[in-house]
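idk why but the lab printer keeps eating my pages so im just putting this in chat instead. protein + nicotinamide-adenine-dinucleotide:
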Amino acid sequence: MSLKGKTAVITGSNSGIGLGVAHELARAGADVVINSFTDRDEDHALAAKIAKKHGVTVRYIQADMAKPDQCRGLIEQAGACDILVNNAGIQHVAPIDEFPIEKWDAIIAINMSSVFHTTAAALPLMRKAGWGRIVNIASGHGLRASPYKAAYVTAKHGVLGMTKTVGLETAKEPITCNAVCPGYVLTPLVEAQIPDTAKQYDISEDEAIEKVILAKQPSKEFVTVEQLAGTVLFLCSPAADQITGTSLAVDGGWTAA
Ligand code: NAD
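predcted complex ->
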């Protein structure tokens, strides 16, 4: 399948899953906009590297997904947005009565509200182009809860609600909106949780991986970035034209239980 002529905007894509999705959509021929809140030489160098590897146009646009005007500004600066992948996300692990208010606000803003702002800004461009795909990277935590992740679980459940609503609002148009719910993927986001999880449960970091993190994943294997990128590409393919307002779990069986 070729995405030649399409522009894909992927939020939070200088690392982890977002970066993998950027490579996969570029490999399929899309021009790509990668994003994060930083503005370092290495961010722009990363865009140049993806462009060179796949022979497409890749731009890095700095925008902080915690800020509504910058979420909307990202889409405005992109100029076109046929494929929107809402991927930016952060995590913080703490009991609810000790959960720092600023962490709650940041997680709700970046993981949930940014999806509202980018979607609102992108839909008019998709309607003008006569085609659009919105893929929200939610989580198994959009379907299930875990202790100490109040903000993250709340935000990801919210993203699934928004996905259903946008799917219904665009159902009669050649636009789809779906969510992907990954299980545990070994990216910087999960690596950072390991020490906190070990502390919360008073166990070693190895035990935190085995007994807490992968305890929920019946396959006992981390999901890979490539598997998620392939799922996003599938949702952009004609085979997925009638898939909208739903979520696809890529989680080694976690949410089947
Ligand atoms: P990651 O930390 O590697 O990537 C997160 C990305 O978001 C980075 O590019 C980071 O720069 C960007 N980001 C953070 N704050 C931002 C901000 N304010 N503005 C713009 N960009 C910002 O983590 P990841 O594991 O690749 O996570 C990507 C998405 O996948 C997240 O939404 C996460 O919740 C979700 N997810 C991850 C896992 C997992 O196991 N890794 C599981 C389920 C869902």
